Write the structure tokens for this entry.
Amino acid sequence: MVPVNDLQEMYRDMVTARHYEERLQEEYLEGKQPAFDISAGPIPGELHLAAGHEASGAGVCQHLRDDDTVTAPHRPHHIAIAKGVDLKRMTAEIFGRENGLGKGKGGHMHLFDPEAGFACSGIIAEGCPPAAGAGLAAKKRNTDSVGVAFLGEGAIDQGAFLESLNFAAVHDLPVVFVIEDNDWAISMPKERITDVQNGAKRADGFEMPGVRVDEDDAVAVYEAAGEAIGRARDRNGPTVMEIQVHRRMGHFMGDPESYRPEEDQAAAQQRDSIERLEDDLRAHGIDDATIEDLRDEAHSAVEAAIEWAKSQPEPDPEDAYEDMWVNPPSGVTDSEPDYDLAGGDD
Amino acid sequence: MSKQTQQIDRDLTMSRAMVEAIADEMRDNEEVFYMGEDVADYGGIFDSTEGLRDEFGYDRVMDVPISETAYLGAAVGAAQEGMRPIAELMFVDFFGVAMDQIYNQMAKNTYMSGGNVSVPMVLTAAVGGTYNDAAQHSQTLYGTFAHVPGMKVVVPSTAYDAKGLMHNAVRDDDPVVYMFHKRLMGIGWLPAPDGPKTPVPEEDYTIPFGSADIKREGEDATIVTLGLHVHRALDAAETLAEDGISAEVVDLRSLVPLDTETIVKSVEKTGNLVVVDEDYRSYGVTGEIVASVADESLAALDAVERVALPDVPIPYSRPLEQEVVPDAEDIAAAVERTQ
């Protein structure tokens, strides 16, 4: 039985994430009409939106604390929101503003919020080793925090993922690997590029539990993730989870998706985990007015974040040269001791 | 372009010219095939394989798992069996995932075998920034690939060069790294400047590696560059001409081998050397070109300027990226400092 409070929080996170992606899409397309130029408009560069992935981020992160570490891939917003990343500063980063999480240096694929225990990387599967590292640190320090790596189903063929599974297994690390299966690695359907259609089976070769959540159902994700994260916290080792999600938008904004059958796109629009969770809320006795309030709260938070982000200044060009080092280039010292190295008495 | 004598009426984008050469080689030789991510149905994220699957099918235009070590290494292996694979890194930034196959296998096997093994493959890779794709998707990494011995490294700046260099790359019996700049390809969603779309002959032709091309002749300064920055240098030269400064623009077209002779000859004429690179400043192309000229003809050098990415990762935000990626104004200012 899922505590109703958890259901409501997941619902708020999922609605926030969906509305966030829809609003970012609008903002992103501004300045890119009539001709689409990826470098134009208030949000330039690539933008990978996660509409349809919400159940995964919310269901997993509902079990996580600030001292747990999450690494996310290039499609990170829903996970960041569920992990509690500062929405205003994240949005300012996506708009490339001075008060963004990375002062405009990182962008949407490279969001870092250490206070919320969140980081992401634009290179497929490369968040897996650092998540194992977070688990390693927890184990060495004897704390009960955990590391969680999110990756897409296209990433399960990468060495960084497979090597991390073995590393986590052999050291019994408190790590959970969460595969978000949206069926598509950009234009490549998984049946054409991966041997197994159930990515959780990757766990078998490393003698760790592997579980697949076959529908993008936040409650089912919550239950499976609770078990996996609980196992990690209790020092019983790593788990692989695969969650079926769906890609409602292109791989990146501007992706023509000409490779994707229309029926597949239409099916993705049908499988709405948010509507499903609304039904769950009602079944738990939450009335429509409360659901409406949660929705309004989420929408307001998104609008406030976007408004705040757009009001922030752009960085000074000279700031490009800052933040290269924590210590000065010379290291912790700028002088060398004056030893006499001429030798001993003889 | 300077080698053309017949009139060519057909203009192609750089991507069409590159694909035309690949298709031509695939028709001529059953052993040529293309592997990469999103190269079949999508036609390459940067149009590098547009239309090839329609003609050659999935067997010869292969979508691969996102496993760069496996498929780049498989290209090395197939090449060593005598086939002629072309394997694509979607973004050159992803090289790190498969660096051993590139640096320690592909580049070294010919030498380590005492010449008994050849690796006749082409590694294609999209390079470059200018569209705010941030630190992991905007690099050029010319110096990284040119540094380790054993790879020929080519960088087209026009459609004409793209076709001739690709024909030569596929026919070469050594590993060739073919680095194409995203901004030059003529992709619908990433508009190219005017320069890279050029007349391209219908028939096949090869451009030798190590033959730099003088894209504009001048008397007062030599600008040596490659890729996107050939066009930015040409823009700078146009501006400088209005101020009475005559700049020569040398397009390297390949880094390995390097056409030192053409560079030195130009510097001996102008006395001033400005090297422009979209890659990082330190331990890279600019330092190498300056050192090569100094080795050959130190006395010819009156002034030297380096224009490159300062030693920081490429930042995301527009004003930050524009600050670090050299533009035509930066190039013109550097030329002016030599006068």
Notes: The CA atoms of residues 180 and 251 of chain B lie 14 Å apart.
